[in-house]
Every structure is written in structure tokens, then in C-alpha cells.
Amino acid sequence: MSDLLNVEKLNVIYGKGKECVHAVKDVSFHIQPGEIFGLVGESGCGKSSLGKTIIRLNDPASGSILYKGQDVSSLEGRPLKTYRQEVQMIFQDPFGSLNPRIKVGSAIIDVLSVHGIAANRTERRERVEELLDAVGLDPAWAWRFPHEFSGGQRQRICIARALALNPDLVVADEPVSALDVSVQAEILKLLESLRATRKLAFLFVSHDLAVVRNLCDRVAVMFNGEIVETGPVADVIDNPQHEYTRKLLAAVPSF
Amino acid sequence: MWGDAWGRLKTNRIAMVCLGLIVLFTILAVYAEGVHVYCKINDVTPSYNVVDLSHDYEAPSAAHWMGTDGLGRDVLDRLIQGVRIAYAVGIVTSLIAIPIGVVLGCLAGYFGGRIDDFVVWLYSTFASMPGLLFILAIAMVVGKGMIGIFLGIGLTTWVSLCRLVRGEVMKHKEQTYVQAAKALGLGPWRIMFRHILPNITHVIIVTFTLRFPAAVGTEVFMSFLGIGVQNQPSWGLMINSARMRLWQGMWWEMTFVTIALFLLVLAFNLLGDALRDALDPRLND
């Protein structure tokens, strides 16, 4: 099976000269279609930077990002827009990632019309209602403002918005760490069912090893901008090879 | 969100009094515009321009509530026409200055880099020149009269708004909702004007209420100096003519015009302050 995403020797550097920060160092990994790939590490280790670089919110300093065999690391303009139909992102903060002044349905319609999906108004509205239904929200809520929703509901809206473009890969940057534990479980269940029904692949960025263990197929452990260990989730967590992975696992409280 | 702000504003008694005053001034301005247009269409001399030398410098009475001026014209009539001029100046200069400030501020804040450098250079240049001299220079170039006032004030007072908008856009650019919009493939123009701008409208509204009276004040001053309004009853011209006979005890024209100017400026400024408090998003959470 050919890889959906293949990252080779990727470097991300913020700033210039003496004060530059080398956030991601020579990172290589690949994701297959329909796979949930976990990326764990402590805060500041560069995992979010990596996620944002893959969706091209950051520009890589060097290295390549092959998506379906095509290098997307220096796309601009129209090809970049097309790329964004296929790779989407869910953010950590469900409160900050929705524009407080735009109704959630309008936000999704905006995305549809920018990408020329759905021919007319009625079709777009139908599409919005389908999407909300798909993430377990009442379609009638489309014409409400974000502040009328809870954190979990907002995250579902963000997921619906990301799904609007029918992506094949979703970068989920700590999608549940800002939510209550009970809500976390619901969102994770939703992600899992979306993977099954839509053949979605996820790059699941998290610092929560328990979540990663339950959800992911393979996992990479990041430390100081480098991937120190990667492999099937059971192998990495039950039989860690790298010193840092052991430390990370030892730090998880067990009850 | 606007509902919340209105709720907070309603509890502020001073703001409501100011709002009442502004509504009153607005009605007067609309009425004056009506009279002005009516007289123009029907080619009659409007009452505020009717010269009656047999009734010059009359003190306030039942016939002339605010007295008459040196040419026997009714001060109240002219004062109401002055509201019209003041509003025209406040609104037209805002229509010139606010779009310039908002567009340049958005571009500079959003794109940064060379565009930002250019905009900062531009507004620093404008800000470094003494405002009034600059206004006078522009007014001299385009000629005396309303156009000179509109352009003079409009083209020089966008700086503070531009600075504010630039800062706000820079702040919002880093927020997740903008990042999300970018990741969704929305273009920079749509992000700037459809996503960020609605989140900073409170800055624009507050700036409008604060720059309105400043523009009116500048117009009065320009007209007082004789390079502003010509042949129309501007408050500046009225104050200038009233000053001549003030020492002889002709106090009414000067008094009523300054009170009107004072109330208008005060009402807008206090309302602007109250709006700033009511719309401040930091208080919302």
C-alpha cells in the first residue's frame, strides 16, 4: 500500500540568526490511508510545529512533505488551496478556533463556497446540515453563534468544518486536551467512527499516552524536535526502546 | 454580543443622557438639512439668511429666542444650521478617514513585512506634521469652503485609527480562528475583512464617536480663521462675528453657540468613553 503522507528529513526553524529556534529536526515518518498515527511528547517538543508544517501553516526550512507522492512543502496559491481540500486540521482550543462573530453554519458555508463545493445556496445548507448530523449535532443549531455551545459541541463543529472539504488526512492537534474527560471519550469515539465511515487518516498530536494507546495504530515519540522512537502503538508503549520514552511512560500516573 | 453591550450601556445613566442629546442634535441636523434643501429648490432666501438691519443685535426675546446678530438674523435659526454643518463635517470626514485607516491598518497588520513598513512610515510622516498646519495646507490647495474642510480633516485624521486597527489585526492574526481559516484555504482578503474586521468593529465605533467632535471642533476653528465654511452659518463664523461686539454686552450669540458646541463635543466624548467600556471584549468573559 502506498503512503498517504511521507515526511522526509523535515526541519522547521523559527526566527533567524542567533535567536533562531530549531523546532523540528530531521523528522521522517509516513502515514498510510485510513491510519491513525499518534505523535506524543512533552509540551514544547515541536509536535504542534510539525502538525502545523504539514498543513502548511508554517513553512519548513528544509526536507520534503510528500502527499500522495507529490511534494507539498513549497506549494503556493492555487495548488496550496487544492492541497487544503485534502488535508485538514482540528485545533486544540475549541473556544478560540471558531470566529465568535460568525454563525457556525455560515462558517461552514464560507468554506464550501471558497472551494466551490455545492452549486447553490440550498445545496450548501443541506451540506451543512448533513455535516452537523455526521458529528452528532442537531442540524437546526447551524444558525447559532459559537458562544451558545459547550466545549465538546464546539469541537464537534470544528470537526464538521474540517470534514466539509472531504479530506483524506486530518491533523488533530491535541483535539481533546482542552475538554472534560467524559467529553473527551465522546469526541474520541467520534474520530474513530469517522475513520471507519470515511476512511480518514489522522495525525493525532497528543501528550496523553492513555488516549494515544486506545486510539492510534502507530505512534512516534518526539523529544527536543526529534522523533526518538516510532512503531506500532503496543510495541512502543509496552516495550519502549528509547530512554526518553521510558521516562515519559514512567511519568504517567497509574491508578 | 451587541445585545450585551447595549445592556451594559443602558445601565450607564450619563451615557443615556448623552445619547439623548446626540439624538436631539441629529434631529436638528436633519431638520436643518430639510430647510436648506427646501429653500434651495424653491429659490427662497432661507430664514437664517434674511437680513433685517432694523432688528440688529436684539437680545433674546419671544420673537427671537436667542436674539439676533449684527445683520438682524435669528441666532437660533443659524445655530440649527450650524448643527447641519457640524454633522456634515463629522460624517463626511469620517467617511474619508475611517476607510483609509481601516484598510491601511488591516493590510499592515495582516501582511506585515514591507507593507507594514510602508504603512508605518506613511502614518509616522503624517503624525509628525503639526495637524492643524497640515489641514490648513490641504485646505489652501483645494480652496476655501466645505471641500477644503472635508479633505483637510479627512486626509489627516486617519492615523490614530490606522494604528489601533493595525495593532488589533496583529493580535487577531495569531488567534486560532484565523489559523483555522487559513488552514481551511480562505484567502487573505476574506480573512481580513470577513473574519477579523467584525471582531474589531468596536474599535471603529469608539473611534468614530471620539473623532466626530474633534472634526467639528477643527471645522469651527478653521471657519473662525476664515479658511473654512463660506457664506453658510457655521458655528465658527458665528463665534467670529459675535466676538466683535462681545465687549459691548452682545453676549447671546457667543454664549448659545459655545454652549451648543460644548454640549455636542461633550456628549460624543462621554458616549465614546461609555461605548469603549461597554464594548470592551475583555469585560465580556
List the helices and strands and how they pair.
The complex is a heterodimer of chains A (255) and B (285).
Chain A (H helix, E strand, L loop, with lengths): L4 E10 L6 E11 L4 E5 L6 H8 L7 E6 L2 E2 L5 H10 E4 L13 H11 L6 H14 L16 H13 L5 E5 L7 H18 L2 E6 L2 H7 L2 E6 L2 E7 H6 L4 H8 L5
Parallel strand pairs in A: 3-8, 3-9, 6-7, 7-8
Antiparallel strand pairs in A: 1-2, 1-4, 4-5, 9-10
Helix pairs in contact in A: 3-4, 4-5
Chain B lengths: L1 H9 L2 H30 L32 H37 L1 H16 L2 H12 L3 H9 L4 H15 L2 H8 L4 H9 L4 H25 L9 H11 L6 H28 L1 H4 L1
Helix pairs in contact in B: 1-12, 2-3, 2-12, 3-4, 3-6, 3-7, 3-10, 5-6, 10-11, 10-12, 11-12
The largest chain-to-chain contact, stated as pair and per-chain residue counts, equals: A-B, 29 and 18 residues
Sheet with the most strands, sense and barrel status of chain B: none
Q: Major beta sheet of chain A, specifics?
A: 6 strands, mixed
The count of β-strands of chain B is 0
Q: Could you tell me the mean pLDDT of chain A? A: 86
Rounded Rg of chain A: 18 Å
The assigned structural class of chain A equals alpha/beta
What is the first-to-last residue Cα distance of chain A?
A: 40 Å
Kindly state the mean pLDDT of chain B as a whole number? 88
Oligomer: heterodimer
Throw out a few tags for this protein.
heterodimer; A: 255 residues; alpha/beta; four-stranded antiparallel β-sheet; 10 strands; 37% helix; 24% strand; B: 285 residues; mainly alpha; MetI-like fold; elongated
Brief write-up:
The complex is a heterodimer of chains A (255) and B (285). By secondary structure, chain A is of the alpha/beta class. In chain A, 37% of the residues lie in helices and 24% in strands.
Structure, described:
The complex is a heterodimer of chains A (255) and B (285). Chain A has helices spanning 47-54, 77-86, 104-114, 121-134, 151-163, 181-198, 209-215, 233-238, 243-250, and strands spanning 5-14, 21-31, 36-40, 62-67, 70-71, 87-90, 169-173, 201-206, 218-223, 226-232. Chain A is 37% helix and 24% strand. Chain A is an alpha/beta fold and 255 residues long. Chain A contains 9 helices and 10 strands. In chain A, α6 links the parallel β7 (169-173) and β8. In chain A, the strands form 2 sheets. A 6-stranded mixed β-sheet of chain A has the order 6-7-8-3-9-10, with helices on both faces. Chain A has a 4-stranded antiparallel β-sheet with strand order 2-1-4-5, with helices on one face. The model of chain A has no long low-confidence stretch (mean pLDDT 86). With 285 residues, chain B is mainly α. Chain B has one domain (2-44, 65-283): Orthogonal Bundle (MetI-like fold). Chain B has 13 helices and no strands. The radius of gyration of chain B is 22 Å and the shape is elongated. The model of chain B has no long low-confidence stretch (mean pLDDT 88). Chain A binds chain B through residues 52, 55, 57, 80-81, 84-85, 88-89, 91-93, 96-102, 110-111, 114-115, 145, 147, 158, 161-162, 165, and chain B through 1, 175-177, 179-187, 190, 194-195, 198-199.
